[in-house]
Structure formats: structure tokens, C-alpha cells
Amino acid sequence: MNVIEKLCVVTAIYGLAACKTENQLDLASLNIDPYNQEVAISGLIVTKQHSPLSVPEEYSHIHTLSSHLLEHHWLQHDNFLGDLAELKAMFKKTSLPEAASFIIALDKSQKRYLSYLNNVDAIAVGMQRQIDKDLKNYRHSIYELSNKIHFLETSEITYQERVNSLEAKVKSQSSRYNQLSAAFRQALQRTINNHDSSIKLIDELSFSFDNRPHGICRQYHGMSDLLTTVTTNCVYINRDQLLAPFPDSLKDKASKVIDSYAADIWHAMTELNGYFDTANNTQHFPDNLNYQLAQARRALREKTYLNERESALLLHRYQQELVHIEQQRDEILNLAFLDENLRIDTQSEAFIRKLNLSVSPLEPFANLYQSADIKQRFTHAYAEKIIHQYPYELSFTVSSSGYFSIPNKSDATGVIFYFNDIKQFLSYDLTKHSQNPEIINKNSTGLSLSTQSLIDVVSGKLKQRWAI
């Protein structure tokens, strides 16, 4: 026998030995006809990370999100559109034709939600307008009654002391205002005297006012220039008129004098008298010292003419009226659909009940989700996807004689054998990893036979997850 012939014999022997190292399913003991060529047997390896009987995270998230959407009222769901979009994306990701009806239903639900929300917002705006109107009336009445009660509860001597105090403040503030005005005019006159002492100032400092935030003030208001040293509102001065007598060489210096005095004069004036806009017939800064003094003097006069009995009767009457109007306000405004700021809370149970918002925009999706027929078709299709897309490296085939090899055996915790056209499958636990071939028969430890197909069992597990 030559060398080549010897090599062939050795190779054949090793090939037979390799065949003998394969595991074998004893098909006869399992009542499976080994000669039935139509029976194809496939194997799936179970590991700690993978099992065809485990519900995929993607599928679980679909139904967790579905339940979250369906269980909460759509007005009480802060991220309704976001969750709807995420759910639609997850159905698309399954790539199953059976998911198309869910995607269409979610599109319809989104359109309904936007339509319903517009109607709710319009109703809430109308309700808020009426509540604001009622609240304004109540606040005005309560304010007036509170002032009357305060007036009656305050002693005459207190009012006399307040009048005395305000008179002193008015006198002091008048003096300050006059001093500032005089000092300002003198400073301007000294500036122009350096050029020509015969020139006299004609125009007085005057103001105009626009009650807007300083950040949106215009630079000019008519013939007046914005006073930038006042940063609370839009205050304007007649800068050009004041600077008219000055030669160009002194205008910049004179303008700095104006800026150094104008803001103080403005604040002194408004604190003393406020500012009355003749163009709009509007009083700004109404709580000025002269106004407070006038109010205090009037209160003192009224207090002087009231005797104790009249005062006590009026106080009791006003107190009763205040209690009544506060109760009335609370009955009308202390409603469950208002938040702590007395704004309409469209998420409150009371608002939902008041508007009878029982119809959900999710109705098209809910009808499908609760359909037993739709559930059966989708879970069956998803079960087929799980099995057909099982990782290739964890799959193997079994020969018609029952021989098979397990790839990645060190990671395997079990094996599942399933058959085409036979409503059963085998589960086999790998408790020990032996290097020797195994023959698996009906008496093997760790072997269990299901009387259902693998797809039906997987589909059943998916159905259980559907309702959670």
C-alpha cells in the first residue's frame, strides 16, 4: 500500500470518528418517523441572553407604552404626542405587515387629538375670561370694604399723626425738588456764562412719559429725547430746547449737566406729585405724597364727624358684607378645575367631568388593540419573526437520522428542537457540558416535550404580555 492509499484510509477513519462525536436525537423513542423526509428538525440554543421563549424588550416596550397611553386620560397625559410618535415608530420598526393597521390608527388618533385639543383650549379661554371678570369684581368689592373697615378701626389720633407726618414729608420733598430745579438751572447758566454772560436760558426742563419697559423705549418721543439715566420706564426730556442757546462747543458739556440732574429731578417730582399725562388724561405714579396727604386729610375729616355709635354700626355692617362677599367668591371661584393661581386646569378631573370629555382621540387605536382577532394575527406574526430571526450563531440543523452538533456549547443553557408541520417541540436542559456525544431519548434527564408548536407557545407568551 503506497503512501497516498495509507493517507486515504487514515482520513476515512478520522471522518468516521468525527461523525461519532455528534449528538443524536433518538427519533424512534420520541415517536418521530426518521424516514419521513418532510419532517425538518431545527435547533435553537438557549443562553442567558437569548431564548425564543423570552419576550423581546422591543415588544414589551410597545405594550408598556400602549397601556400607558390607554390608561390615562388624554388631557392628563403630558407627553401624549411624543409617546404616540414613539409608539408609531416602534410598530414600524417591527417591519411586520400586521403592524400597518396600528400605524394607520395612531395617525388617526393624532389628528383627533389635535382637533380635540383646539376645542378644549377655546372652551378654557372662554371660561377663564369669565372667571377673571368675576374675580376682578370680587377683588374690587373686597378692597373697598377692607379699606372702609380699616378706616373705622383706625383711631382719629392715628389719622392726625399720619397727616402731620405726610405734611412734613411733602414739605421736605417740595424743598428738595425746588433745590434740585434751581441748582440745575444755575449749573446750566454757569456753563453758558463761560461763553457769553448776556445769554439767558429761556426754556425750562420738561418731561414726557411712556409707561413701557426701558428695554423697548424709542430714542425720541415727538420733540423729546430719551433720558437714558432712568432705566425703569421711558422718560423723555426737551434736551434740544434746553441746548438751543448754547454754542456747539458747549453743547456736549451742557448735555452732561442735564444728564447729571434730570433723573434726580424726575424722581423728586414723581414722588411729590406723580406725573399727569395731559395728552392721554392719565395720572401716573398715583400713590405720590400729595395724593396720600389729600387722602389722609379727607379720612381725618370723615373720622371727626363720626360718633362712636355710628362707627360701631358701620363697622359691623361692613364686616358682615365682607364675610358674605368672600363666601360668595369662594363658592363661585373655589372650583376643582382651577389651579392654585386661579387658572383653568384642563387636566383636572372636574374640568374633564364638566365638559364630559369621555370620548378619547385614541379610540381608533384602542379598538384595534382590544380586538382578539388583531391580537392573534399580530402575535403569531411576531412569534414567527422571533424564530426566523433568531441569531444565526445560535441556530443549527438536525439530520434526518437525528445527528446534530451544538455550536457555542460552552454558553448554552439549553436547546430547543422544533419540527416543521408537527405541532410539538422539545426542550432540553444542558446541565453539564460533556465533550462526549450524547444520545437524547424520551427518558433523558432535562428533556420535555410540548404538545404545541413552538410558534404557538411563543405567540401565547406574547399575548400574555399584551395586556400588561
From TrEMBL:
Q: What is this protein called?
A: Lipoprotein
What organism does the record attribute this protein to? Photobacterium alginatilyticum
